[in-house]
Design goal:
The complex is a heterodimer.
Chain A (H helix, E strand, L loop, with lengths): L5 H17 L5 H6 L2 H9 L4 H6 L5 H9 L1 H4 L3 E5 L16 E4 H26 L2 H10 L4 H31 L11 H25 L15 H24 L1
Antiparallel strand pairs in A: 1-2
Helix pairs in contact in A: 1-7, 1-11, 3-7, 5-7, 8-9, 9-10
Chain B lengths: L9 H25 L4 H17 L1 E4 L4 E4 L3 H8 L1 H19 L7 H25 L5 H30 L6 H33 L20 H25 L3 H10 L9 H13 L18 H32 L1
Antiparallel strand pairs in B: 1-2
Helix pairs in contact in B: 1-4, 1-5, 1-8, 2-3, 2-4, 3-4, 3-5, 4-5, 5-6, 5-8, 6-7
Classes of the chains: A mainly alpha, B mainly alpha.
Chain lengths: 250, 336
Amino acid sequence: MNLIHPLGKLLVCVLYILVVASFNKYDLQGMILMAVFPVFGFVAGELSFKEGVYRMRLILPLVLFVGIFNPFFDREILFYIAGTAKELSAGAEATGGIPVTGGLVSMLTLMLKGFYCVLSAYILIATTSIEEICYALRKLHIPKVIVMVILLIYRYFGLMGNEADRIATAYALRAPSQKGINYKAWGPLVGQWLLRSMDRAGVVYESMVLRGFRGEFWSKARGFKPSDMVYAIAWTVIFLAIRFGSGYFF
Amino acid sequence: MHMADALVAPAVAGTMYVLSASAAGVSVKKVREENDPKKIPVMGVMGAFVFATQMLNFTIPGTGSSGHLCGGMMLSAILGPYAGFLTMIGVLLVQCLLFADGGLLALGCNIWNMAFYGCFVGALLIWRPIMKKGATRGKIILASILGCILTLQMGAFSVTIETLLSGVTELPFSVFVATMQPIHLAIGLVEGLITAAVLVFIHEARPELLWGVGESAEVKEGKLSLKGTVIALAVAAAICGGAISLFASSFPDGLEWSMEQVAGTTELEADGGVYDTAAGIQESTSLLPDYAFKNSESAVGTSFSGIVGALVVVGVMVGASYAFKFFKNKDSANAA
């Protein structure tokens, strides 16, 4: 997975998310079929499923909030599990069985959509470095300034972490018996953190300019190999086949 | 506030991508015109700062909920609307790619909801008018709190509209709005106070870092006046509102729209031929043929046996993936 061209991986990931999001809210079987991509990614990329699920914690609350009410508002019964073979559309009533409402199906579909999209994005980032993703973004003609800001945010994040650590240590040494940081000190501390980081970032940037940086991070150009092409085309065909053809086969 | 991919339909996501890309295009042009290389590291640091602060959730008292800083007002108060907007795009992209916080498909929505209002509305309609005669401690606090509350309210309202237009929830509009707006009022207030505390410190320590302070006297020609800005933003809001509703109501699903263009229908149904054959195969091979369905021609288009069939395919795929891995490892071992 790591050897596949980053542009191919990015495009396949975006297409996958687009197709997943386009499914009808009641199309549970199509959604289940769409699991093939994350399954392949996790197995072939030898990724930790636990880590992928851990990433869900950030988006899960909103998805849960939006979906959890569906069973209460949409109570139309779509089908019965373990009922009789009688077709309800013919007017006969099902005897026994567990009724499954539209709200329940749409809630499950929505949760699967959220789950898949996060997992596919995780597969992309776990098998592609930030430099490679930025390289792919440049290939897609995303403006240089945006790509540069992404790379700088990524690099300065560590720098800011170091500064924060120093400030927290200094505060703890000055206030040894105090639990946490007093709320009155938050503004100056955070402001100081920002100013010190800016100064350091300015020095780092000047050093980069002195060493020949002219606003472009150069990446090693990579050609699109036949295997990259097969990867992209095969997944495109599979996604579209599931999207438009799942109803024919099941 | 970050929307997940599951919450947006492709048509809504596409519309928001176009709108956000347009604002980004204008911002890239403006930043290029400014041609201030010293701004680049500041953009990077501010981006990392907002990124870090967005990771820190604070509890909203009495609600059992929590929120995090959005950061649009803080960015625009230091970088201005254009560089601030681009920085926020960078933050949202990194979050979406590294932390799966906010989806790739929903990125256009997130940029609009969190960056556009915070940076453009916050900077041009709130920060600059208040600071036009110079900054004071009181003015900074007022602009920060007002800006954060208003822009977060706009963002939260947009989230509601985008989710409802996408048709993924059965929540009535009134319930959704009544839940989203008050909680973001509280989040906006806390964000406003934190933003004010940081900006007041910067004003006292390095006032030259603040954007748009005391520039009214020398408002350069060609820049939009407050009235012009209000009109431009109102027109933009009307266009985007119209565009979303047009797309959402006419084309609820981009792929279905494509199907309609190609096949003349959004439903892939056919009598006879392949359909009947497939139906026959399904009937004879279905693992669970005794489940009863309410309406086989409903929009659901699904059945429990279909779901089980799909699970079987996924099971086969798991096996195939392990086979792929097995042969890959074997090849590697042979090569070694």
